[in-house]
Amino acid sequence: MALSWFILRARYRLIHFIAVAVCLLGVGTMVGADILAGRQDSEGSDVVIGDVLVLLGASLYAISNVSEEYIVKNLSRVEFLGMVGLFGTIISGLQLAIVEHRDIMRIQWNWKIALLFAVFALCMFGLYSFMPVVIKVTSATSVNLGILTADLYSLFFGLFLFYYKFSGLYILSFVIIMVGFILYCSTPTRTAEPTAVPQPRSTGLDNAGLKLEENDSQTPAVTVQFTREESVVVSTD
User: What residues form the membrane-spanning segments (predicted)?
Assistant: First the structure.
């Protein structure tokens, strides 16, 4: 919201701030459900570094979404998708080659693993293809609020795939986030008009003298001629 306020000049009403607070309450409920379910027991050794990286990633993702909203609403959505596909492939390929090449070499490839990779690639293709359309219709803030429910969807799949412990707080957090999301989308935001730069009323003595000289130079000269028949001929240069 802060980035949209300063960069996109979006102006929010009181209900938008209340809706964001409700969504954050839902996120807190989801974290509490994780603690009660014991999912924090498998945390790594560098918790502080992990938290810093998460905050950094969230900040960069917010900048990315706000920039995406500016591009799709003021420039070309097709060009945005083309640039994301081009540079995303290059950057992801370099990251894969530098960081994860050993893990890729250790994969025991079969048709199931290949199918999972293909489904993942198809889901990401759909996400990045439809997200510009949704952002153009709504806003980056509303999209980010909707993404808060993504952890719950992954949890529901984890219940069947990884046998996560279920808690009723997950359903409660999902309901709270959805209520906040609906509240935010119920009232449209407005865009602040750019402020006009005030023009000085007084130009000063020097500028006034300059303008007088310019006016004198632009005033056409008038020539009056008398002929023998006593007719008057007036010409201007």
Answer: 12-35, 47-66, 78-99, 111-131, 143-163, 169-186
Is the distance from CB of 134 to CB of 86 less than 8 angstroms? no
* pTM of the predicted protein model: 0.68
Pair 5, 11: CB distance under 8 Å: yes
Distance CA(86)–CA(72), nearest Å, equals: 17
Measured distance CA(142)–CA(135) in Å, rounded? 8
Q: Which three-class secondary structure state does DSSP give residue 213? A: helix
Tell me the C-alpha distance between 77 and 70, whole Å.
Answer: 10
All residues at 6 or more sequence positions from 221 whose CB lies less than 8 Å from its CB, including other chains: 236, 237
Quick one: pLDDT at residue 18? 92
Closest among 220, 222, 217, 221 to 233, alpha carbons compared = 222
